[in-house]
Amino acid sequence: MKFSKKLITWYLQNKRTMPWRETKDPYRIWLSEIILQQTRVAQGLPYYLSFAEAFPTVFELASATEEQVLKLWQGLGYYSRARNLHATAKYIVNELEGVFPDTYKGLLELKGVGDYTASAIASICYDEPTPVVDGNVYRVLSRYFGINTPINTTAGIKEFKGLAIELMDHEQPATYNQAIMEFGALQCKPKNPYCIVCPINDSCVGLDKGAIGELPVKLKKIKVKKRYFNYLVYDNGNQTVLQQRLGKGIWEGLYEFPLIEDEKCTVDTIPTTQTFKEMVNGGEYVITPFKEEPIVHKLSHQHIYTRFFIIKTDTNLLLQGIQKNVNRQEIHNYPVPILLGNFIDSFFKV
Questions:
Q1: Which domain range does residue 179 map to?
Q2: 73 within 8 A of 46, measured Cβ to Cβ
Q3: What are phi and psi of 104, to 5 degrees?
Q4: Residue 220 placed within a domain
Q5: Which active-site residues does the annotation give?
Q6: Which NCBIfam families has this protein been placed in (predicted)?
């Protein structure tokens, strides 16, 4: 039996029940694929359900504010996905009259949609034989065919895409694409794959050569950068201060407390900083650390060492243009990074 047929047979017997597998609506498929980028299904499923409930069609999503979208996305990470999701929804509604492109090439024109996402939508919604290549697919193909080419190189991307095209089941493109992804997620897992009961173990090169644990090959990541964030949490009982992150760095468009990025900040040195002086404006204050040790928040290429300093003062704060007074009861309504969301839930209890 062909490779593709074996995977499809396995899939039909073992697939998980998912809401996006019950539809061919391109909006729902697109929504699920964007959410599941760089996200495990278990983590992404609640977000998919929340978005589908809040924005049942692309028209509701397009009509939402960016803050509403970011708030619903809070905790999922890689926030550029949320901004692209919102921008694409508005483009589809305003420029395409609410109709999604119905070809792989057309889908590639959408912001935030790359080769994998376009392939998934085109095959699932329109039965176009366009193979998906994601982390699960790289793993399955590299192990089964014993391929050592690093998957995060130009040569590797080209080689695996070419192989995926050769293996594509043109009669059942949607089922095949979902089968190979599900097979990688459940059967050919990154660690401790179920090789003994694998339906293709009799012809797996990686298993035969004892190389399952070494495949796929991936070049080492870039060096992780350490950053030190010190947040000034003003607390007069009723209000605090938030500001929106601008620019193209991490957490663009999300809210945070006034920030001093400096490794050496302490209770003694915070008052000497220009940010603190400008806000307190010479008034009396009491400053205490929320915790003595920094909270380490790990991103893909950055580790954020974070401390929160609680500032109590009755002085009218001298706010900068990007800062705003926020009522204590309303702070939970603002989209913030999960790091700050956890602090807010702990410190500003409803």
A1: 3-214
A2: no
A3: -55, -50
A4: no
A5: 33
A6: mutY
